[in-house]
Amino acid sequence: EAQVTQNPRYLITVTGKKLTVTCSQNMNHEYMSWYRQDPGLGLRQIYYSMNVEVTDKGDVPEGYKVSRKEKRNFPLILESPSPNQTSLYFCASRGSYTGELFFGEGSRLTVL
Amino acid sequence: KNQVEQSPQSLIILEGKNCTLQCNYTVSPFSNLRWYKQDTGRGPVSLTIMTFSENTKSNGRYTATLDADTKQSSLHITASQLSDSASYICVVSPNTNAGKSTFGDGTTLTVKP
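Structure tokens for the assembled complex are given below, as produced in the milestone run.
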């Protein structure tokens, strides 16, 4: 089954404690991206990657890092989380032919 | 600046009724427009895709229209069901293989019994 898998789905952490949210897709997609979604706001892009070792900033990259060492994986790294990074995070991959975005189930992060 | 604006922001209708959601965009160059459905707490799922040459496309009770001249799209839901309660997001892409997609803020639809 074609899918995008995120982990963890839920996480409560404290300010300053580094964390990583993993994302993996099994569709051999070149394009992957991370979004955050906050109440009253739409999906905002954090970072995206056009291919292995190619990443670029989205609209709200501050406080986040990413890496793309393998085609299937695109982890999101919060080096020093702060309360304003409390949000619902989505990873997505995009089909090259159809352009359809396939989203993961989301990771709800709370930073205390 | 590329923008996608959706209206209304929220909508409440009774089960069985029809409704229409609107999407206006200023994305250029334009490749395709998709409507996604997002259930509460879940990831968005694609409903329809419209390319430049298409005017109408249906997916069950969902019908999307596109007017590329006025840069407007609509999503019409027929005979609504309680399971249609969700956020509907309009996404416009400049190119299927490259470039960033531009997201609307979504319309939250609530269907009441």
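Chain B touches chain A at residues 31-32, 34, 36, 41-46, 49, 89, 91, 93, 95-98, 100-101, 103-106 (CB under 8 Å). The radius of gyration of chain B is 13 Å. Further analysis is deferred to the final report.
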